[in-house]
Amino acid sequence: MDMYNGLEEQYRELLNAAKEAMGRAYVPYSHFRVGAALLDTDGTVHYGCNVENAAYGPSNCAERTALFRAVADGKRPGQFRAIAVIGDTEGPIAPCGVCRQVLVELCPHDMPVIMGNLQGEWSASTVSELLPGAFTSSSLEKEG
């Protein structure tokens, strides 16, 4: 039986792709694997996993890896339809604050964010619901 039964087929496939990406994580310090799968407007899936570094600061989350990879592959902000993220957590894993900020910058604000875990639990939100009152490019504009 599919562990994401009842979830829209496209999102179920995206969660399964995120699980595949999770297996590629480089986590020699935390041993906490996270995978992400980003669907673009052309139907291409961009994979991401967390990549750690001994200095900790240069580490990168799975969601940002998928987003940055997609941009490096030629996608532009706004050309994404959904992202799924998965981890071996008690409940569905949610993007960290830094990833939420990057999602706001690169993705449509109504884009679905599907969060899951290895036990088959999931939840869905939108980019704007995950970071209300976000700092955006309009925040940099000066008045008058």
UniProtKB/TrEMBL annotation:
Required co-factors: Zn(2+)
Alphabetical list of InterPro entries matching this protein: APOBEC/CMP_deaminase_Zn-bd, CMP_dCMP_dom, Cyt/Deoxycyt_deaminase, Cyt_deam_tetra, Cytidine_deaminase-like
Gene Ontology molecular function: any one: cytidine deaminase activity
Key words of the record: Hydrolase, Metal-binding, Zinc
Source species, domain of life: Bacteria
Pfam family, one: dCMP_cyt_deam_1
E.C. number(s) listed in UniProt: 3.5.4.5
Signal peptide positions on this chain: none
Catalytic activities: cytidine + H2O + H(+) = uridine + NH4(+); 2'-deoxycytidine + H2O + H(+) = 2'-deoxyuridine + NH4(+)
Enzyme class: hydrolase
Gene3D superfamilies to which the protein is assigned, alphabetical: Cytidine Deaminase, domain 2
Limits of the CMP/dCMP-type deaminase domain: 9-138
Protein's job: This enzyme scavenges exogenous and endogenous cytidine and 2'-deoxycytidine for UMP synthesis.
Similarity section: Belongs to the cytidine and deoxycytidylate deaminase family.
Name of the protein described by the UniProt record: Cytidine deaminase
Source species: Paenibacillus thailandensis
Gene for this chain: cdd
